[in-house]
Amino acid sequence: MAFANLANKNCQEAIACFKTVLELQSKYLSPNDSNIVRTYNNIGSIYRQLNDYDAALETFTQVTDVEKFVQMNSLEYAKTLNNIGFIYCQQGKLINALHHFQKTLEIQLTFNDIQPEEIAGTYNNIAGIYLRQNKFDLALVNAKKVFEHCPRVHKLLAATYDILAELYSKQNQFDQAINAYSNKIEIMKKTQFINPQELAKTYNNLGMIYNTICNYDMAMKNFEMTLTIEQELFPSNHPTFAITYNNIASVCFAKEDFRKALKYYNKELEIRLLSLDLNCADLMTNYRNLSVVYFKLNKYADAFKMSEMARKTLVEYIPPNDNQLISLYNDLGEMYYLNHKYDIALDNYKQALRIGLKILPADNEELISVYKNIDELYFMSRIIISTDHSSEENCFTSLTYSTIGAIFNEMNNYDKALLYYKNAYHAELKMASPDLDHIETYKNNMNAMKNKTSYFSREKFIQLMYTIYEYLFNAG
Asked: Which spans of this chain does UniProt mark as TPR repeats (predicted)?
């Protein structure tokens, strides 16, 4: 009855039947009967199938109540340890999982009549744990053990090749990774044990590797294979398509086929906007990618529209001082600069710095890229630069220093504002043909900051003296 319910996917009814069996076994069988362990394993396996890992773990560990009666090195007990290891693995408790898999292996290796595939499966599990721990050498050793115990054509090898492929990818050994994924697909076809979703994922992983090594034709071929399989599995608005469309679009962009890239980025956008589980970071990236493609196609109005949509998405869903806004405003500035709208470009660069200088040190690489863009704006009007200035490392134009100073002034950080206004003043003096109006402005800014710093120093001194006086007065 229990197995019949299980075959019909009536899992709760199957659990109830197995629990009834367990009650009868406890009444009529001796405590050392392995059938009791087997029933616990059946119940736990159903909970595991339902992804109810807490209930599964509780059921599997019930076996420990009969450990003193059951032979500790029995294969049924080994299966229980393996099941517990799997649950710990799903919960991310890798050390516990590894311990149980290793205990499973110890028991299995004591039996001469055990199926080699069972031992191979345990080695595969251990290899997977070591991979997740980034212990690549140990993962490789255990993966190779799988091949020693498993027939050359067996469905288990697909999982092992997957482990090897990921292992090689993480070590940038892309040829070996490609070979492993290709072998995985071959095994799946030979054993006719094809999970379409797993096959689609494998083609996608191959595409990602080919894209990484700039073999765009092979990347496109594998992404298109992924898309073909997904179209047979899912409705046209399924969120999975957003990832595949993005991958295809990125390859088209790399091949400078911008019209085709635009087509697939728009397809991606349609899926993301329909998704109930909206990921704002992915949506923002989608808008930014569309913006870049439109810009490449000289469709500037559409490019700016997409950038503005990216900005609105970020502002709506993330904190106002998020790092992503820095690069977004910097990118917007670059686009306006290339479109010769220099004032708007500078406004966006300033906004990038307003956010960045609040959360990052002034010499952060991300901010330095903004400084360099402001330098480009400066050089639009001041082409000639002295030898001294051009040779100094990390030395920026007076406009850049002045902009940073103005932002620190807005933040009431007058000491730093004064420092950068001084840098602006000296940078302008080093120009082959200094702008006297700029120099006068920077001098005025420096004086203003000196007045503010001295004012706040006086205020702090008065406040300190008042605190001391109050303390002495209260002390009598």
From this structure: 37-70, 78-111, 158-191, 200-233, 326-359, 398-431
Strand, helix or coil for residue 135: coil
Domain ranges of the chain: 1-114, 298-390, 398-475
Q: What would the DSSP string read from start to end of 101-128?
A: HHHHHHHHTT-SSS-HHHHHHHHHHHHH
Cα 300 from Cα 292, distance rounded (Å): 10
Q: Do domains 1-114 and 298-390 have the same CATH topology?
A: yes
Distance CA 115, CA 100 (A): 19
Please give the Cα distance from 46 to 83 (Å, whole number): 11
Q: Determine the topology of domain 1-114 in CATH.
A: 1.25.40
Angle between helices 75-90 and 34-49 in degrees, nearest 10: 20
Residue indicated by tokens 């072998």: 183
Cα separations (Å) of 150 from 115, 140, 193?
9, 16, 16
CATH class of 298-390: mainly alpha
- Token pair for residue 284? 């923002």
Residue of 134, 99, 139 lying closest to 123 (CA atoms)? 139
The string of pLDDT tens digits covering residues 45-55 is 888 888 899 99
